[in-house]
Design brief:
Number of strands: 18
Order of helices and strands: HHEEEEEEEHHEEEEHEEEEEEE
Oligomer: single chain
CATH topology of the largest domain: outer membrane lipoprotein receptor (LolB), chain A
Distance between the termini: 68 Å
Number of helices: 5
Strand content: 35-45%
Number of domains: 2
Structural class: alpha+beta
């Protein structure tokens, strides 16, 4: 009985295999089209993967950031077409349309070429046009695009890899003698989900009814706000040296239509990588009668993951007493000084792509 039963099941299994082999392919292949596609982003010259590259489907709004292999997975929409725009800090953006069923490794690999900063004299027609920015408008636009992209990358990085930062804050009041008698040191926790205040043209300082005021620092995320740049003039000043690194400086200031307190300053970018190295800021259009006479400061940045820059240290100085005609050292003696420095980061939802160890 056992041998007969086994023979029966063997016969049945063979019959099923035979039926499967003889059945028309259309019965099984109708749903075999892949539901996702892998997109790879690499450096065009070195052919190495680019992590943290932005991959956006312009039609559906799908937005992904590549992993350490330079890859993302995107879902095919019902149309079977992806209209992709790929961006990476320091590289020229690329756009390409992929078709489901015909996508190949060549079409899904985006080889990115680095940005070359070249000063090309062109004619400017904007309300901000000057002799300086007319002569370097092409350079200015290229630098601005990289600066905005870096700020947008920081915003997206915080969303995908939320973290908690341990921050050391040092505060001091400076007497007129110029020597601080006490420095207050505090350790604080900062969550990356904390929303930065919305930029409001000409309304950066919040004045209170009791004569006090609230003056924030210039946030990195503000540099990714199109409204900010619509209300500012900008001009790149060419190549300079910053701590032994070839860098490019872009200055910005409120345009003539902005009447109230707003930001002016400059951003310093590495000319080879387009990484933001330093951001200097100053509050323009202040009304000294309202209590705040001057505010200056700067930020420096670190890179926890390839092509991502986040604030590392901030220093701010502000004056509430007005400058007298005989006070030649007024600018050397602010009324208050404050510094913040990130001591450590703790990621709460996954870890970002790491820097690859250099090969020996």
């Amino acid at each position: 009985m056992k041998s007969t039963s086994l023979s029966h099941w063997k016969s049945a299994l063979f019959s099923l295999v035979a039926v499967a082999a003889l059945s028309p392919p259309t019965l099984f292949s109708a749903d075999r089209q892949p539901s996702t596609v892998a997109v790879t982003v690499i450096d065009a010259l070195g052919r190495y993967p680019l992590g943290n590259a932005d991959v956006i489907d312009l039609a559906s709004g799908q937005h992904r950031i590549t992993d350490e292999r330079g890859q993302v997975q995107l879902s095919w929409p019902n149309s079977g077409q992806l209209r992709l725009r790929v961006r990476e800090v320091g590289y020229q953006p690329l756009e390409r349309t992929l078709q489901r069923g015909t996508a190949s490794p060549d079409s899904t690999t985006f080889a990115m070429s680095k940005v070359a900063y070249v000063i090309a004299p062109v004619r400017a027609t904007s309300s901000c046009a000057t002799t300086d920015d007319s002569a370097s408008l092409a350079l200015s636009v290229a630098v601005l695009d990289q600066l905005k992209q870096g700020a947008e990358k920081y915003i997206e990085f915080r969303r995908l890899y939320p973290f908690e930062a341990s921050v050391e804050r040092r505060s001091a009041r400076i007497p007129e003698s110029g020597v601080a008698k006490r420095i207050i040191v505090e350790t604080e926790k900062f969550s990356s989900e904390n929303l930065d205040p919305k930029y409001r043209p000409g309304n950066v300082v919040q004045y209170k009814w009791d004569g006090s005021f609230l003056a924030p620092i210039l946030f990195l995320s503000t540099l990714g706000d199109s409204v900010f740049w619509q209300n500012h003039c900008f001009v790149a000043r060419g190549i300079e040296s910053y701590r032994g690194t070839r860098a490019i400086r872009m200055e910005f200031s409120p345009n003539p239509n902005v009447r109230g307190p707003d930001w002016s300053g400059s951003a310093v970018l590495d000319s080879a990588t387009s990484y933001l190295l330093r951001l200097e800021f100053h509050l323009a259009n202040l009304d000294a009668r309202k209590g705040l006479v001057q505010l200056d400061g700067y930020q420096t940045f670190s890179s926890p993951s390839p092509f991502v820059m986040i604030p590392d240290s901030v220093v701010a100085l502000w004056w509430i007493r007005r400058k007298s005609d005989d006070d030649a050292k007024w600018e050397l003696r602010p009324d208050f000084v404050q510094s913040l420095h990130i001591d450590s980061l703790k990621y709460r939802k996954g870890r970002p792509p790491p820097y690859q160890a250099a090969k020996q």
